[in-house]
């Protein structure tokens, strides 16, 4: 039987160690490369941190599998068994340009069910943590269930690019949401934006395209505070492919899907 508490303790310990490595790296020069285009950055630290987790996991749990953004893990095509879904640095652009507003994100799943979600804001030393059935926490502070929010009072996370002409969605669907809500914010780290929804700093976050490592940990947190996460059409999320993504307090989420996105 899988000892999830044991896994949880190790994951927390390793994430703290990885955070320390990242903070220490601020004194050294970064090596920055481009991936798919000149705005898609990756650094030596993204790679080193992913490799650090993989070494620890493989040494301790040789039968677990790992899906990591930088590709050092396994070639994962099913959700069978224990699966670690890792984004070593979510918000690499912020990491490079701001040295803040980025996070380490780890979701740990058993046969497709989320058991552990960890999102670590390394610079602010804020660990968002959830364990299936036992609630969500920021450091040691329990996060309450989300209260009902009306759209007029909502603060919503969205990248401004989606309210300009783009290849993923008709911005005429999105602009009215931005006009109606109390405020729109863009933090540049999907994992942190999920953690902010879970902790009530945002009421919703929506985007046209994320990978599983961007939201795997966030899903576990959201579940524990009674929020909802789906595609922009309200469908179930697929942990093995890129997808649109919409997370929020339940009433607000349902309202936006019905009145704005499924028009
Ligand atoms: C990115 C961030 C960003 C989101 C992108 C992601 P990365 O992750 O989460 O906020 O808009 O879609 O790819 O590349 O910095 O790990
Ligand atoms: Ca990336
Ligand atoms: Ca990411
Ligand atoms: Ca990343």
Automatic annotation (TrEMBL):
Enzyme Commission number(s): 3.1.3.25
The organism's place on the tree of life at top rank: Bacteria
Catalytic activity: a myo-inositol phosphate + H2O = myo-inositol + phosphate
Keyword Lipoprotein assigned: no
Pfam families the UniProt entry points to: Inositol_P
The keyword Ligase belongs to this UniProt entry's keyword annotation: no
InterPro entries the record matches: Inositol_monoP_metal-BS, Inositol_monophosphatase-like, Inositol_monophosphatase_CS
UniProt entry keywords in alphabetical sequence: Hydrolase, Magnesium, Metal-binding
Enzyme class, first EC level, given as a word: hydrolase
Protein name as catalogued: inositol-phosphate phosphatase
């Amino acid at each position: 039987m899988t000892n999830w508490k044991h896994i949880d303790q190790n994951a927390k310990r390793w994430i703290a160690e990885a955070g320390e490595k990242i903070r220490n790296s601020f004194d050294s020069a970064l090596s920055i490369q481009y991936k798919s285009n000149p705005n898609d950055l990756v650094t030596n630290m993204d790679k080193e941190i992913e490799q650090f987790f993989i070494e620890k996991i493989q040494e301790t749990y040789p039968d677990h599998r790992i899906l990591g953004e930088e590709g050092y893990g396994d070639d994962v095509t099913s959700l069978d068994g224990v699966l670690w879904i890792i984004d070593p640095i979510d918000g690499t652009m912020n990491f490079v340009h701001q040295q803040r507003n980025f996070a380490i994100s780890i979701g740990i799943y058993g046969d497709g069910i989320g058991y552990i979600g960890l999102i670590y804001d390394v610079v602010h030393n804020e660990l968002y943590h959830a364990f299936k059935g036992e609630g969500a926490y920021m450091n040691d502070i329990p996060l309450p269930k989300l209260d009902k929010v009306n759209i007029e009072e909502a603060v919503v996370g969205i990248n401004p690019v989606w309210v300009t002409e783009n290849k993923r969605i008709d911005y005429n669907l999105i602009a009215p949401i931005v006009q109606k809500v109390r405020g729109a914010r863009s933090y540049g780290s999907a994992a942190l934006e999920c953690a902010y929804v879970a902790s009530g700093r945002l009421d919703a976050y929506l985007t046209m395209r994320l990978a599983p490592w961007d939201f795997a940990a966030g899903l576990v947190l959201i579940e524990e505070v009674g929020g909802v996460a789906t595609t922009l059409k309200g469908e179930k999320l697929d942990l093995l492919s890129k997808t649109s993504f919409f997370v929020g307090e339940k009433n607000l989420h349902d309202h936006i899907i019905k009145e704005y996105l499924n028009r």
